[in-house]
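Q: I'm writing up a methods section and want to include an example of the input and output format. Could you take the sequence below and give the corresponding predicted structure tokens, formatted cleanly so I can copy it straight into the document?
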Amino acid sequence: MIKKKDIRALTKEQLRDFFVENGDKAFRGNQVYEWLWSKSLHTFEDMTNISKKTREMLEEHFVINHIKVDSMQKSADGTIKNGIKLHDGLVVESVLIPTPKRTTACVSSQVGCSLDCKFCATARLKRMRNLNPDEIYDQVVVIDKQSRLYHNHKLTNIVFMGMGEPLMNYKNVLKSIEMITSPEGLGMSSKRITVSTSGVPKMIKKMADEEVKFNLAVSLHSAIDEVRTSIMPFNTTFPLKDLKESLEYWYEKTKRAITYEYVVWEGINDKKEDIAALVQFCKYVPCKVNLIEYNPIDDGQFQQASNAALNNYISNLEMHDITVNVRRSRGKDIDAACGQLANKA
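A: Here is the clean output for your methods example:
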């Protein structure tokens, strides 16, 4: 019995070769590739422009692993959280975030997470495996359909801010973006895609060397090593000096500004020295800061800082001509907000 391969793991060239080797025309590979990616078909049976015999041959050799929306929750603010079941039964979550001018897909890149941020629900889950490129791609397809159905317009933006550390699944994340932006895939602009990392210096440099066209965001939360390590223990392996150097390298190569994501917590990073350190860190490369509202994950260790502390950050950053936005969380009532994924899955 033939062990069936996941057909979407094949390149278009490999598909063309498969058909030639099996006595068919190479262009048949192009037809199948289109069904698999731009049309996101899940069964060989529905590939109507190829013969029944060819469809049966595909069925004999391959499977189309696809995701399934196992659960869907809608927030009062229009946010939708999807529980996504993978072909092996594991579950990840993805989120549709609507605002008046855009709809954003927040997608996962790992089952669980490789890192150990203490304030994030996903980090409490053991990393089971990396997602394949098609599993990331399919999340975008699902959310685009939901955007059209519930918000009457197509998906406009994608953020890799769901479960997992994208740069710990580097190859598959980049392959998924390649297909999302390809005319043979979804044809979305790279400028509308943001990859968010907790800061893996070696991989940030690798992205810069590969001249990627998407945007980079860094989950920073403190510009003081001691503080950052206390909430993001992997900072001992990837300290701020290495992160700084990699971001300078990124900007030198790409000339694209960086977004720093930053939550202010009471008693953790709400002091004057925390603000001063962030201001200094922001001077290294052109950037903007998103101050993010904290979303509790039930244990009480982390509490949102006061409005006064937040305003201190804003006024100090603006005083130094650093662009700062305050991001109010959406989907909190369904645990779909930043840091909450997998909290109550």
